[in-house]
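ok so I'm stuck.
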Amino acid sequence: MDLQKLKAPVDRQLALLGFELVCLEAAREGRDSILRLYIDHLDRGPDGNRPITLDDCVAANDGLVAWLDVEFPDLRNDLNLEVSSPGLERPLVKPEHFQRFQGRLCRIQTGAPINGQKRFKGWIGTSTEAAVTLEEDGVLKTIPLEAIQKARLAPFDEEKAPPPRLLAPSALPDQPDAAGVEKSAGKETPWHS
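replied:
not stuck anymore, here's the structure
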């Protein structure tokens, strides 16, 4: 299954259900092939921090299953559907994600080296439709979004990492969790269909 062909229709269907498709990935776990969807609320609430619950995952799953069976009838024969919250180490896929989490620490891996480097860990600075700027070890680095293979927030490293020196104070959140990252009392539980 070509995930790029599936991404836009799934994104539209989730929007009808009140959710944003954060990330879509195919995974192999043992003998099972899984289509994993990370979702978020389209309406994040007045404080911008409305976490995804297990009930939300169930609602999104139920809303997708019947639609998938009509639009992509063979898909669920080959893949198991898993709907999950983005979690604390949420994927950063769209330009809006980098803008929303400006001032937060993230890890980025690129497909090809940029100035001899493929792995980055730094504070998110400015971002555009084309690139994101990170402050890594006191150096500003611009990474084209098209070069990014994988990007995730790194909330567990924020307290240990040296604070950014070059980013404007307005780019930094007041508190480590102020940028709308969900809080968790335990491990996130994905919903399987």
